[in-house]
Design goal:
Elements (H helix, E strand, L loop, with lengths): L4 H12 L2 H21 L6 H24 L7 H23 L7 H20 L1
Helix pairs in contact: 2-3, 2-5, 3-4
Length: 127
């Protein structure tokens, strides 16, 4: 049976990316999903696409929360705490968007996703 080309690409990406590159890729995808909804706010399927984008973002940030909560995580404690605090902010913002949809409320989450992804890529390139 043939796979969806996007699934095939994503699967191949997972096999060939380092942890940081994969995290950057996933954050970029999460940001792009929200940005696409934002750019097409008046689309008839907006509510469905918004929920898909929010759920994906919540999964991404839940993964980070789990990883950063692990005492064996190699990041410095203060950096882990800062990112955990950021994830709590993102959770609150996404719940706010669910309760009171407004495309402008997505700006900060999109920016955070893209900026962290860029930082992760910069560190990979320098390594």
């Amino acid at each position: 049976m043939y796979q969806n080309p996007v699934d095939t690409y994503t699967s191949m990406q997972k096999e060939h990316l380092s942890g940081r590159e994969l995290e950057a890729s996933v954050l970029t995808r999460a940001g792009l999903m929200l940005k696409q909804v934002q750019d097409n706010w008046n689309a008839p399927d907006r509510d469905q696409k918004l929920m898909e984008a929010i759920k994906f973002n919540q999964k991404v940030w839940s993964f980070f929360q789990a990883e950063l909560s692990d005492p064996e995580n190699p990041l410095p404690a203060n950096l882990r705490q800062d990112i955990l605090n950021l994830s709590i902010f993102i959770d609150k913002r996404l719940f706010e968007v669910i309760a009171f949809p407004d495309k402008e409320k997505l700006n900060i989450v999109v920016d955070i996703n893209f900026n962290i992804a860029a930082g992760l890529r910069t560190n990979v390139e320098q390594a």
